[in-house]
Amino acid sequence: MRTADAGRQELAATAEVFLDGFEEILTDACATGRRLTRDEIESRRTLGARAAEAGHGWRALVRAHLAVGRARRPAGADPDSVLAVVEQAVDAFADGYERAQRLVVRREEAARREFIDDLLHGRGDPGQLAARSERFGLRLSRAHAVAVAEAPEPCDETDPVARQVAGELFARFENRRILFTTKDGRMVCIAPGDREDVLTHFARLVHAVTGAGQVALGRPRKGAVGIGHSYEEALNALDVAQRMGFDDPLLRAADLLVFPVLARDRQALMDLVQHTLGPLEQARGGARPLLDTLTAYFDSGCVAAAAARQLSLSVRALTYRLERVHSLTGSDPTDPDHRYTLQTAVLGARLLDWPARELYTGAVPEA
Description:
The protein is of the alpha+beta class and about 375 residues long. Helices cover about 60% and strands about 10% of the residues. The protein contains 15 helices and 6 strands. Helix 12 packs across helix 13 (about 305-310).
C-alpha cells in the first residue's frame, strides 16, 4: 500500500513539473486582485497538455493546484482572490489537458483502425502485426474468428446503432480480448476462436438493436493472416446468403463451404448450368418458373405437397411442371440418379444469378 509520505512526494513532484510558475502567478494576481493575463493562461494550457501526454491523472493535478493555493497564498490575501486565481489557473490547465486527451484519443483511434484494416486485409509484416497486436489486446499466436454484420442500413462507428452494439458488447465481455469496428458500412467483431459465445452474442445484439440484420461467422484461424481469411469467409457467407435468398439471422461459413467449392471452377459451373438447365429457356414463360419449381422441390426435401404449398400450386400442377423439366432436360427430378446433377445445377444457377444474368456475356460476380 502507498504511504501518506509517498502520496505527498508524488504530489510535490507533480507540482514541481506541471505547476511551474503558478506560485508567482498566485502571488502577483492576489496582490492586485487582477485576472490572469493571456500569456499566463496560455502557459497553464501548455502545462495541462504536457500533463495529459505524460499520462498523469486529473485528480492528482487538481489536488496539486489546491495544495499550492493553500500553502503558498500571500499573507493577508483575500481568500476570494486566492480562489479566483486558482479557479482561472485550473480552468486553463483543464482546457489544455482535455485538448491533449482528445488528440491522444484520436491518434489511438486512428492507430486502432489502421491496425484492424491491416489485419482484415492481410497487409503488413506478420511479425510487426503481432508486435502491434498486444497494444490492442490480441494475441495473434491464438486462433481468432471474425463476425461481420450486415444491418438494414449502412453504418460507421459514429452511428447510434454501432455505438449501442459496441457499448453492450464490451459491457458484457470487458476483458475478453475482442475488437469491434465498422468496415464498408458493416459492423465487424474479432474474438478468440474458442469464444464463439462472444460472436453469437454480437449477432444477437445486432438483431436486437436493428430489428433485422444478418451476421456471418468466419472459421477460427491462427495468426494475422488467419484473421484476414476468417473475415473473407464471413463476407463470402453474406454474399452467398444474398444470392441464395437465405434469411437466417446467423450464418456460419463452415456450413456454407459447398458454395465456394462450386464456384471455384466458374467455367465448369457455367457449363453445368448451361448444359443441364439451358433447355428450360424453351418453356413458355422462360426458364424462371420451372427453375423456381425445382428450387422449391429440392428445398422441401423433394416432397411434392410441401413444394406445392410453397409455390401456391396444386400438387397436380407441380407434378406437371416437374414432368415438363424432365421432357426438356432429359433429367427426372424425382429420380435419385438424376437428382444430384439437377440440384447442383440449380445451386449453381442461384450463385450465378441465372437466368437474370447471361452465362457467357458480361462479367460474372465473384462468389
